[in-house]
Each structure stands twice: as structure tokens, then as C-alpha cells.
UniProtKB/TrEMBL annotation:
SMART domains: HTH_MARR. SUPFAM superfamilies: Winged helix' DNA-binding domain. GO terms for molecular function: DNA-binding transcription factor activity. This is MarR family transcriptional regulator. It comes from Nonomuraea terrae.
């Protein structure tokens, strides 16, 4: 059985040697925090992201939402089903492609999004409290580069 000292000594060395492992662990930590926060707001992370995108860019197909938000298509179907059931979005035939549906945020969806958005700054401050503001900005820049969206 490993000692507590060995546990606390090995992982920092592993994380320093394997940036991929460090990033995966950091991502998992932030993901758990986001899920906990989402449970408190009553709006899942994926649901929040869908409402935010629809509010920002207007009606979209589920495929576009899935691709842009990098959410698996089968998961996106469930997210949109749940949002539609709560009357936060509606699906309508896409006027540009009658074979697909456009997902549109409703007025109640906008209100729910606005409520959820109020707690995001405090959540981010708490989640990234170990980083100074300059470090958070630097992390954002570096992650953007890794994701191919940096300047």
C-alpha cells in the first residue's frame, strides 16, 4: 500500500514530465467543478452552452450546435430534447434545408440563461482562485492555441 508521502511526491513529478497527464487531470478537476455548479443552477453544462450559443448566434441545426460546441451528436439530441421539454428551446423546420430542424431559444430560455449567467463569474473566480488574473489570461491564450482558436 503506497504511503501518503509517496502519493504526494510522485504525481507532481509525473505531471511535470507528462504535460498531457497534467492537462487531463486539470480538465477533470474543472469538469467536476462545472458539473457541481451546474447542478446548483439547475441547468446542465451542455444545456447552458447550447442556450448561450443560440442566444449569441441565433437558430442553428443540432449538427451545427454539436460541431461548434464539440458535444457528441447523440448527447446533443438528449440536450435539445430536455431543453425543448422545459420550453427553453423549440425545434422548427430549417427554412434553408427542409430536411433538418433549426433549434431556437425561447423567451423562457433567455430568462433561464440570464439567471444561470449571473453565477458564472463567481464560479470561475472560485475554480481558478489559485491563478492570478495575469495567469488566467495566459492560460486562456495557451488553451486557445492548443485548441487551434488562438490568435
Amino acid at each position: 500500500m503506497p504511503t501518503k508521502t509517496a502519493d504526494h511526491v510522485y504525481f507532481p513529478r509525473l505531471a511535470a514530465e507528462r504535460l498531457d497527464i497534467a492537462l487531463c487531470r486539470a480538465s477533470a478537476t474543472v469538469s467536476r467543478a462545472a458539473d457541481t455548479h451546474a447542478a446548483e443552477t439547475g441547468l446542465g453544462v451542455g444545456q447552458h452552452l447550447v442556450l448561450q450559443m443560440l442566444d449569441a448566434v441565433g437558430p442553428c441545426s443540432q449538427q451545427t450546435l454539436s460541431e461548434e460546441l464539440r458535444i457528441d451528436r447523440s448527447v446533443m439530441v438528449g440536450i435539445c430534447d430536455d431543453l425543448q421539454q422545459e420550453d427553453l428551446v423549440r425545434r422548427e423546420r430549417n427554412p434553408r434545408d427542409r430536411r433538418s430542424y433549426a433549434v431556437t431559444i425561447t423567451d423562457s430560455g433567455r430568462r433561464r440563461l440570464a439567471q444561470a449567467q449571473t453565477s458564472v463569474p463567481a464560479f470561475l473566480d472560485d475554480t481558478f482562485r489559485s491563478l492570478a488574473p495575469e495567469e488566467r489570461a495566459q492560460l486562456s491564450t495557451l488553451l486557445g492555441k492548443l485548441l487551434g482558436i488562438g490568435a
